[in-house]
């Protein structure tokens, strides 16, 4: 037995929503009188909304009650949703559509494993939704990556044993989650950060069905 399913992270793998997260978090940080850099934003990739805010407050040595934190997180989300509402298929990352088409044509199951609570909106706007046989997002999971829950739920929904799944991830926490879940991982980004993955590539243009099957 070999490859049966591919599970995709969303932000940083299929679409570049990190730039919108950055702009919205920056806007929020500025209202709190804080600065927020792209380097700090890097550390929020794959991390849930509430945890991201907690980190930003920690970096600034700020504390506030949970109620206030929830208020700020939803303020940021409002701005973020406004930004992603204008997304189109042009914002799908290089190589993604070609690979998804090839997987579909070869009856490989396709699942989403994202921490985002806005994943469905993004998939709708970019026209990616019809490719997916199962969607697992931040509304479904209770434990964040590196916990393997998001991918294990995906495999379960697809009816595939984890060992026949390959995960595509741009965040080291996501690669760790895939490995903990007994799946193979392809890292999208740099070797230094994602070295634990079986294969690391710059983007999906470097991947076709044969490359994935060769991991087995
Ligand atoms: P939301 P992924 C993650 O998406 C993003 O990388 C991360 O920056 C974001 O905080 C998280 O989703 C939650 O997003 O605020 O939309 O629920 O990489 O897991 O697809
Ligand atoms: Mg990601």
What can you see in these coordinates?
The protein is built from ten helices and six strands; from the N terminus they run βαααααβαβαβαβαβα. It is an alpha/beta fold. The chain is globular. The structure holds 1,6-di-O-phosphono-beta-D-glucopyranose and magnesium ion. Magnesium ion (MG) is lined by residues 9, 11-13, 45-46, 170-171.
Note the run of SSEs as H and E: EHHHHHEHEHEHEHEH
Going by helix content, strand content and strand pairing, the class is alpha/beta
- The poorly predicted ranges are none
**Range of strand content:** 5-15%
Task: List the defining traits of the structure above.
single chain, 216 residues, alpha/beta, six-stranded parallel β-sheet, 44% helix, 12% strand, globular, binds 1,6-di-O-phosphono-beta-D-glucopyranose, binds magnesium ion
Summarize the structure.
The protein is built from 10 helices and 6 strands; from the N terminus they run E-H-H-H-H-H-E-H-E-H-E-H-E-H-E-H. The chain is an alpha/beta fold.
Write the layout of secondary structure elements.
Blueprint: E1 5-8, H1 18-31, H2 38-42, H3 49-59, H4 66-84, H5 96-105, E2 109-113, H6 119-126, E3 134-136, H7 149-158, E4 165-169, H8 172-180, E5 184-188, H9 191-194, E6 199-201, H10 209-213
Parallel strand pairs: 1-2, 1-4, 2-3, 4-5, 5-6
Helix pairs in contact: 1-4, 3-4
């Amino acid at each position: 037995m070999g490859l049966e399913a591919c599970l995709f992270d969303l932000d940083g793998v299929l679409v570049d929503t990190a730039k919108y997260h950055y702009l919205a978090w920056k806007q929020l940080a500025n209202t709190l009188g804080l600065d927020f850099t792209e380097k700090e934003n890097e550390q929020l990739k794959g991390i849930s909304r509430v945890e991201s805010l907690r980190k930003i407050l920690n970096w600034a040595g700020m504390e506030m009650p949970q109620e206030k934190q929830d208020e700020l997180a939803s303020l940021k989300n409002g701005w973020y949703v406004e930004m992603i509402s204008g997304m189109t298929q042009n914002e799908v990352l290089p190589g993604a559509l070609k690979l998804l088409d090839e997987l579909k044509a070869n009856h490989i199951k396709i699942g989403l494993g994202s921490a985002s609570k806005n994943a469905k909106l993004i998939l709708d706007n970019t026209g990616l939704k019809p490719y997916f046989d199962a969607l697992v997002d931040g509304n479904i999971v209770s434990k964040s990556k590196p916990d393997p829950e998001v991918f294990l739920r995906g495999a379960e929904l697809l009816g595939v044993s984890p060992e026949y799944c390959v995960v595509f991830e741009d965040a080291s926490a996501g690669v760790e989650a895939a490995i903990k879940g007994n799946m193979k991982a392809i890292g999208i980004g740099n070797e230094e950060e994602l070295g634990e993955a079986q294969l690391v590539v710059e983007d999906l243009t470097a991947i076709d069905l044969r490359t994935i099957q060769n991991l087995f």
